[in-house]
From TrEMBL, chain A:
Record's compositionally biased regions (Basic and acidic residues): 61-70
Protein name: Protein Abitram
Source organism per UniProt: Tigriopus californicus (Marine copepod)
Pfam families: GCV_H (PF01597)
Low complexity bias locations: 50-59
Similarity field: Belongs to the ABITRAM family.
Gene3D superfamilies per the UniProt record, alphabetical: 2.40.50.100
Record-linked SUPFAM superfamilies: Single hybrid motif (SSF51230)
Stretch list, region Disordered: 42-70
């Protein structure tokens, strides 16, 4: 061993940080939060995104046609520094605003597609995974008041996994949106998946600016 | 030589003379006759090549025939292109002489090899055909390959020029290859396309498989095996014609790789082990590999390096303790023998150069020992230091006391974990569940919300995820036991035999 090198003990070997900074959680250190752009309050100009991949359902189109609630499709994506995306329920979503309780998550999103069937995903490039685009529905959130809301992917790519914890206990999606309550892991199609997401959605700072103006 | 050998030699010589192929050197005649004793070849010193085209007593018709091939170059044997002929080889040796005498390799033994133009096989096949026809004692299978006979004669010649000892056999690590290139090689091979039309038509279409060239050595040998005599004669002269140009000699010297091994420590939290590139852009300035190799590159000359190590650590993790075993393969090294202390000097330079990487026990190892490097990787136990910070959970305002934490964690032995692939590596690893064990833990409290954790785990355990839980993709985890979230990690890898 070299005698000239001083090896600081671990507590003194950390990368420089502001000394009084609050300790950041794992989610805060490694992920960037992206929110759906806050919509203008004028209900007439609200045009919710059309769902191109799933078959039409009459209740779905009725919901789509009622333009009064701009928050029912509010999305939150946590983007890791390695570009993996976690799809979460936004704290600005109607469910939060109305204080609704989530009864269950229904993953049978169309007649043919069930998001839980995504089990045969092999290898580094995740072959066999369900391919989703930004409008694809990952789950129907069924609330205890009978209403249901679609949770959309927000990013184009491959569905890697549905969070098993949120299947057991959907309420954590509401209670712990930043991290533990994530619903799905998506590997974005590079490069356009991520770049399109960054165009359509905004970071937390931008969101605050746009909301207050 | 045996009597029957002498007879065969003379019979062959006779036929060749009749066919105006008397430029074929005596040594080639010997090898065509199947003479296997190397000293016979050496006895035939500097075989003269009779200038048959200058004989004034030749009948006109023969002269006219010979005049077809204009003699623009001094005659050489059409069977070996002159490489078996002392005078021609002497010329060639003087051309490549400087490369041999200024040899940068420090090896004191060498083995010899020769690479000949592919078209030589065509010439050989052609001679075999004609001799099978005309000489009853000739057996195609007895012909000594030109490469073999060439080595018998030229070993001593190269020895004299290089000042190194010529050896044969597998134990030699240093190779000298005499390369013979003939300008008309391509043209000669082209006839093969017509000779075996079907085969080469296929090859022309399948560009991808046959991208190495339409007519390769292997392809040629196979074609010659299958082709019929008449088909061959239609497309290639039997016997072969004189070569139109003299060959170009060259020499290539290579030495087997040497291996430098050692152990390294890493004290930086911003240094990757190997160069880190994303989309062609560097994400970190340097790497452990590059810091070690830069001083080695200054001291030694070699073609390239291959780095490997017994496991690796993250960019933001230090490597403490005795250090991690690593290996550098240096290909085609010019220096292969080191004076005592020479490698130690290089090690000192590396350590003086960069404070964030330190190397120990730098040494030369034999190739046979190199597979020991990977021994520690998946079987052994690894020991880590982690700095853990408590963040109170959403609903609880009290932190567990340090004494309670210490008591609780140190009681845990051989904890079995189920780890799903951490999200931070999910982009380059398949999604899977891994069973791993934490053998024991030691707690050193620092403040009311920080403690040092020393833990011993099974190889392949994701320690960061064990501490913070990765949103419960690793269970159980410290977070679930204690609600801890922040970690910084060290790795003193004291590997224990399991």
């Amino acid at each position: 061993m070299s005698v000239d090198i001083e090896i600081p003990p671990i507590e003194h070997s950390l990368l420089p940080q502001a000394p009084d900074a609050d300790p950041l959680s794992v989610e805060q250190r490694y992920y960037t939060r992206y929110y759906t752009r806050p919509l203008v309050q004028d209900p007439v100009s609200c045009v919710p995104p059309t769902d191109s991949t799933d078959s039409t359902d009459s209740t779905d189109s009725n919901e789509r046609k009622s333009p009064t609630d701009p928050f029912k499709e509010a999305g939150l994506i946590l983007v890791h520094s390695n570009r993996i995306c976690l799809v979460c329920l936004s704290p600005h979503h109607t469910i939060h605003r109305k204080g609704l309780k989530v009864e269950r998550l229904n993953f049978q999103v169309t007649n043919r597609i069930n998001r839980l069937d995504n089990l045969d995903v092999k290898g580094k490039s995740k072959r066999g995974a369900q391919v989703v685009d930004e409008n694809a529905i990952l789950a129907w959130i069924e609330c205890d008041n009978g209403e249901r809301y679609p949770l959309r992917s927000q990013v184009k790519g491959k569905l890697i996994e549905i969070n098993p914890k949120v299947i057991e206990d959907p309420q954590i999606m509401v209670d712990q949106p930043f991290g533990p309550g994530f619903v799905a892991i998506i590997m974005p199609k590079l490069p356009e998946g991520l770049s399109q997401l960054k165009e359509r959605m905004v970071t937390e700072d931008e969101f605050k600016k746009l909301s207050s103006s | 030589m045996w009597t029957h050998e002498i007879e065969t030699v003379e019979a062959i010589q006779g036929v060749l003379n009749e066919l105006d192929c008397s430029d074929i050197c005596r040594r080639c005649v010997l090898r065509l006759a199947g003479v296997k004793k190397s000293h016979e070849f050496l006895k035939v010193a500097d075989p003269p090549t009779p200038a048959t085209d200058q004989d004034p007593t030749e009948p006109e018709s023969k002269k006219a025939k010979l005049a077809e091939a204009p003699l623009s170059i001094p005659p050489c044997c059409r069977a070996c292109l002159g490489i078996m002929q002392d005078s021609i080889m002497a010329e060639a040796l003087s051309q490549i002489g400087p490369q041999l005498t200024d040899c940068p390799f420090d090896a004191d033994h060498f083995t010899l090899a020769v690479s000949v133009p592919t078209s030589l096989a065509l010439r050989e096949h052609s001679l075999k055909l004609i001799l099978t026809d005309r000489v009853p004692g000739f057996f195609e299978g007895c012909v000594v390959p030109v490469k073999q006979a060439w080595k018998w004669i030229n070993g001593p010649k190269f020895e004299a020029v290089m000042g190194k000892k010529f050896v044969t056999g597998d134990s030699c690590q240093f190779f000298v290859e005499f390369q013979v290139t003939l300008a008309e090689d391509e043209a000669e091979k082209a006839c093969l396309v017509d000779m075996c039309k079907l085969e080469y038509l296929q090859r022309q279409h399948k560009q991808k498989t046959y991208h190495m060239g339409l007519v390769t050595r292997v392809a040629l040998e196979k074609s010659l095996q299958d082709v019929s005599d008449e088909q061959f004669r239609k497309h290639y002269p039997v016997p072969p014609t004189r070569p139109l140009s003299r060959f170009q000699p060259d020499v290539k010297m290579t030495h087997n790789s040497i291996f430098l091994a050692g152990r390294y420590n890493k004290y930086s939290r911003e240094l990757p082990q190997t160069p880190w590139l994303v989309d062609g852009e560097r994400k970190a300035e340097s790497s452990v590999e590059e810091l070690i190799i830069s001083d080695i590159k200054e001291a030694l000359v070699f073609d390239s390096t291959n780095f490997s190590s017994s496991g690796r650590e993250d960019v933001d993790v230090r490597m403490l303790g005795d250090g991690r075993p690593f290996l550098f393969e240096l290909t085609n090294p010019r220096q292969t023998m080191f004076k005592p202390g020479e490698l130690y000097e290089i090690q000192k330079k590396i350590n003086a150069h960069s404070k964030i990487v330190q190397v120990h026990d730098l040494q030369l190892v034999k190739k046979a020992e190199t597979n020991r490097l990977k021994e520690g990787e998946d079987q052994k136990t690894k020991t880590y230091n982690a700095l853990c910070r408590l963040c109170p959970g959403k609903n609880s305002t009290n932190l567990m006391s340090m004494t309670d934490i210490k008591a609780k964690l140190e009681l845990i032995k051989n904890l079995e974990l189920k780890q799903r692939t951490p999200i931070r590596v999910l982009h380059r690893r398949p999604n899977a569940v891994r069973k791993r064990s934490v053998y024991f833990m030691e707690v050193t409290p620092l403040t009311s919300d920080q403690f040092k954790l020393r833990l011993s785990t099974q190889a392949g355990t994701y320690v960061k995820e064990f501490v913070h839980g990765d949103f419960d993709r690793t269970i159980p985890n410290l977070s679930s036991i204690l609600e801890t979230e922040k970690i910084d990690l060290d790795w003193p890898a004291k590997t224990h035999p399991s």
